[in-house]
Specification:
The chain is an alpha+beta fold and 431 residues long. The protein is built from 10 helices and 18 strands. The chain has a 5-stranded mixed β-sheet with strand order 3-2-1-6-11, sandwiched between helices. α6 crosses α7, α6 (234-245) packs antiparallel against α8 (288-313) and α8 (288-313) packs across α9.
């Protein structure tokens, strides 16, 4: 791959819109050249609700990222999330005319057939991901290319999104003067940034706690098995603090990030935080213990929903690598312990460090930017797949030409031998 190849990830989140410009260095690590952020006012729970505000925020983030990286940005990889995201497993099959080698074209034809399945009106398929292949009823095949067989089947993980939500994202990107290269489900992007291959192999659940949504992706045997989006995130915790402590929104956010804990027993009962009062009014005193009670109640509810999704995926007993929590909400004190206590699964906080090389932007190493970094990595992965498919296809056609030449060569030799034998017999008969 060309080391000068630049890819831009654009995360249209509920709390922030973030653009990251990246390229791969000579060691294959991601080098972040620039990052732009803007407050997201036009997005609620992952869905664009105000086009104009979102366009302004996108333009602002892109402008900042472009200035920092000194690169003109025209094409972006965009993330999509929201409660409207649905996933299901569908079975597909094709019958081939011959019993010769299965090619990339056959596998692509099978995958493309899945885009024709019947889905609820107003929905669109955004991802078709193969799980296991079957060749002539033989199960458990991960890559059927090169095998011989007539019937090719596979189970596909199909992810759908609401057409209106996709159209609104497209509209915002177009109005901001940009083009979409890939539209990617956000938990898939985050998983690329924070999960290791070993974790995906052993079985792991990624939980990305954003501002408006909590995204879930379950992996087992290096294959994505289940995805879901819960319509609650960090913002609802802030809203609970605002109402419970009777403070302003920005004060509630500061209380959560600076003094918040996910387990109330861990909070000091004697610790008090003073909040400046309104004009000519005394300062308001808030108990850190009470604050933790409010946060714990809401986080327990979110973790319960996550646990239900893990159980419904059918992989609850197979997650040897447990849970990886990422996103802005994962930075809450004691959250790891609460997850472990409620789910019984090992938990760690996921930082997008593993794939990052030396970068201009150190902020990008925060779990808050896992999705944005993942969108850039997904762009590079798509390039790699395209490149390898091209090489395999050209290699295959070259091999066919070579085989054809060889068969012609041997055929000609056979014909020539026949001619010589006939001449020899004729000569003997004449003699």
């Amino acid at each position: 791959m060309d080391n000068n190849q630049i890819i831009v990830g654009l995360d249209i989140g509920t709390t922030k819109i973030c653009a990251i410009v990246g390229r791969k260095n000579e060691f294959g690590k991601l080098e972040i050249l620039g990052m732009g952020k803007a407050i997201s006012d036009g997005v609620i729970r992952g869905i664009v609700t105000n086009i104009d505000k979102t366009v302004m925020a996108i333009e602002s983030a892109i402008e900042e990222a472009s200035a920092q990286s000194e690169i003109e940005i025209n094409v972006v990889n965009v993330g999509i999330a929201g409660q409207h995201i649905k996933s299901a497993v569908h079975h597909g099959s094709i019958t081939r005319d011959t019993n010769d080698e299965i090619t990339i074209e056959d596998v692509s034809r099978l995958a493309n057939d899945m885009y024709r399945i019947v889905i609820p009106p107003g929905s669109e398929i955004i991802h078709v991901m193969p799980q296991d292949y079957l060749v002539d009823y033989e199960e458990g095949i991960k890559d059927p290319v090169g095998m011989s067989g007539v019937k090719l089947e596979a189970d596909f993980h199909i992810i759908t999104a609401q057409t209106n939500a996709i159209n609104n994202i497209n509209k915002c990107i177009k109005r901001a003067g940009l083009k979409i290269e890939n539209l990617i489900l956000e938990p898939l992007a985050s998983s690329l940034a924070v999960l290791s291959e070993e974790e995906k192999e052993a079985g792991v659940c990624l939980v990305d706690i954003g501002g408006g949504t909590t995204d879930i992706a379950v992996f087992y045997d290096n294959i994505i098995r289940h995805t879901a989006v819960i319509p609650f995130g960090g913002n609802i915790v802030t809203s609970d603090i605002k109402q419970g402590c009777m403070v302003m929104h920005n004060q509630a956010e500061l209380l959560k990030t600076k003094f918040g804990r996910a387990i109330s027993d861990e909070a000091n009962p004697n610790e008090i935080v003073a909040i400046p009062g309104f004009r000519n009014r005394p300062a308001k005193e808030i108990s850190v213990k009470n604050l933790a009670h409010i946060i714990e109640a809401r986080m327990e509810e979110i973790i319960e929903m996550v646990h239900t999704e893990i159980i419904s995926s059918g992989y609850h007993k197979k997650l040897a690598a447990g849970i990886v929590v990422t996103g802005g909400g994962s930075q809450l004190n004691n959250l790891k312990q609460l997850f472990e206590y409620m789910t019984g699964l090992d938990t760690r906080v996921g930082y997008p460090n593993e794939h990052l090389g030396k970068s201009k932007v150190e902020d990008a190493k925060s779990p808050m930017y896992a999705t944005s970094v993942g969108l850039v990595l997904t762009g590079f992965k798509a390039l790699d797949i395209r490149e390898s498919n091209y090489k395999e296809t050209t290699g295959l056609s070259e091999r066919k030409v070579k085989d054809k030449k060889n068969s012609n060569f041997f055929g000609n030799m056979l014909e020539r031998t026949k001619e010589l034998l006939l001449d020899d017999i004729n000569d003997k008969q004449e003699y």
